[in-house]
Amino acid sequence: MSASDASPLDALRARGEAFLEAISAEYHAAYAGLKAAPQIQPIYAAHAAAYGDEAFAQALELLRGSAEGSEDRRSARLLVDWLLESRVGRELAALDEREIAWENAAVVSLPDGTQEPYQRVPITLGNTRDAKARHTLDDARAKLVLAELAPMRQEKLEREHEVVSKLGIAGSYNATWETLSGISLAALRAECEAFLRGTQHVWDDVFPEFLKKGLGITPDEATRADVAALMRAPEFDAYFTAEAMERQVRRQVTEMGISPDAEGRVRYDTGEREGKRPRAFCAPVRIPDVVHLVLRPHGGQNDWMTLLHELGHALHFANMHRTLPFEFRWLGDNSVTEGYAMLFDHRLKDRGWLARYSGLDKKAMPAFLRYMGFEELHFVRRYCAKLIYETELHSGAVAWSALPDLYVETLTKATGFRYQRSDAFVDVDARYYAARYLRAWQLQALLDESLRERFDDDWWRNPRCGPWMVEELFAHGQRELAHEQAERVAGKRLSFAPVIAGIERMLG
User: Cα(70)–Cα(76) distance, rounded to whole angstroms?
Assistant: First the structure.
């Protein structure tokens, strides 16, 4: 990069960071229940220069003028990807505000006249043991979603496709995503299809067993409304108390040689609050100095796993080298940070970790690990199906009107739970985030293998491991793609093979 290019690029980075800090703080406040709804449009207006035509043209010029494999190309690809996302965000800001306000205020009306806040439905489903009551609540939710939320989501998806098409980066939505992400959708989809085929016989064995044992129902009766209740597994609650959760997690991280709050840079928010989203999240507001970890309690081991997951994100963001350029701290392949999050949450799948930090005794341990293997298999199969469905959704080859039936067919076949047509545009993570999760599963399995080789099976309490993790993993931000990190740290390619091996060990 020449000296004449440095100043404009540095200005682009500075404007981009100021914009993302503002937008992240606003979303954090709304999602944490600290305000009724975010005010997104004023932020986009105030920071228009950060993602405007000049910034986009500059980043695109850098991308097209840089050599393949160079640092300029690495930076430019991330900047163009982010600027595209920001332009989509600007176009959809009003729709986002409307949707978030709707989710915060929406109420599901049940046939008996009672009502349930929309945001609490997942929590209620998880804690409802009666199958008829679960299905009634989810049917009422689906009816409301079909009438009000699904049209908003479909409109957003259609508008997003229009914006991406007008930018003309590649020939289609999918080709644009592949160009800017560095990930082949066709190759990942083929891996997902192979995973579904390769684990079908195992799923056919364990699915009926866990449905009967956990909920007293058969596969013919199972719907997606039953997932939260089945994964809630209240029979293990006594071993994973709310009182011990944060204390034990902090203890483990401290024993590993890392500050559990990164010397005050990570702010924990793990209590109940009306208006908090049921889905936990990590909000880096100023990287690496201010990172919020937000969790709304559901109960039991799910809360422990969620806290560990979000803590993996938080420690990553809070321990990045502050000298890294904007794009390597705020942007990049989120498969990496999701891989760290999974590396932490998978401690609930580790016999030694459970014996040391949870209340599980030797008698309960085998049943719990088998349950965790079942849960892992379900979620990987679900996300494989999501990736397959979303490649069709974003391909433009399937009519919008035909997508709900394709969604139900694809997800139901992979998981055995009957899905609702109403969720075809709601159960879609932004910009192929399903791909990030799938690669994260692969990355965490390789990282776990590598850490065991370096620091023994109990690496999670080895005081030499934490500092190594900070310097060799977290400090690099997201400069690398997940498959590049796998090669550097583990010397292996990403694949589902170690994921499958881990599932088989847990299932026994």
Answer: 10
Beta strands 266-269; 290-294: pairing state: parallel
The DSSP call for residue 323 is: T
Q: Are residues 87 and 220 in the same domain?
A: no
Sequence letter at residue 412: T
Q: Which one of 105, 130, 149 terminates a domain?
A: 105
Residue 461: partners with Cβ closer than 8 Å, 6 or more residues away: 252, 255, 256, 356
Q: Supply the mean pLDDT for the chain.
A: 94
* The model's pTM: 0.91
Structural domain including 70 reads 1-105
pLDDT band at 279 (very low <50, low <70, confident <90, very high): confident
Owner of token pair 């600027």: 83
What was the pLDDT predicted at 6? 52
pLDDT digit string (tens) for 396-455?
999 999 999 999 999 999 999 999 999 999 999 989 999 999 999 999 999 999 999 999
Q: What are phi and psi of 437, to 5 degrees?
A: -60, -45
Which residues are bridge partners to 269 per DSSP?
294
Q: Tell me how far apart the alpha carbons of residues 74 and 79 are, in angstroms, rounded to a whole number.
A: 9
The DSSP result for 391-454, as a single string, is HHHTTS-S-GGGHHHHHHHHHHHHHSSBPPGGGTTTS--GGGHHHHHHHHHHHHHHHHHHHHHH
Alpha helix locations (H) across 283-364?
301-318, 326-330, 334-345, 351-357
Closest CA to 39 of 21, 27, 51: 27
Q: Both tokens of residue 46?
A: 């105030």
Q: What is the DSSP letter of 364?
A: T
Q: Domain end: 61, 76, 105, which one?
A: 105
**213 and 77 share a domain?**
no
Token code pair at residue 385: 């199906």
Length of the chain: 508
Q: Is a pLDDT exceeding 60 seen at residue 3? A: no
Instruction: Report yes or no on 167 lying in a domain.
Output: no
Q: Write out the two tokens for 289.
A: 């100095």
Count of CB atoms within 10 A of residue 6's CB?
A: 10
- How crowded is the C-beta side of 425, counted as CA atoms within 13 Å? 20
Alpha-carbon Rg for the chain, nearest whole angstrom, is: 22
End-to-end CA distance of the chain: 55
Tokens representing 276 are: 């908090």
Q: Helix 334-345 to helix 301-318 angle, to the nearest 10 degrees?
A: 140
- Domains of the chain: total: 2
Find the mean pLDDT for residues 115-140: 94
Q: Are 236 and 301 in contact (CB under 8 A)?
A: yes
CA nearest 174: which of 432, 385, 407?
432
Q: What average pLDDT does the segment 456-470 reach?
A: 97
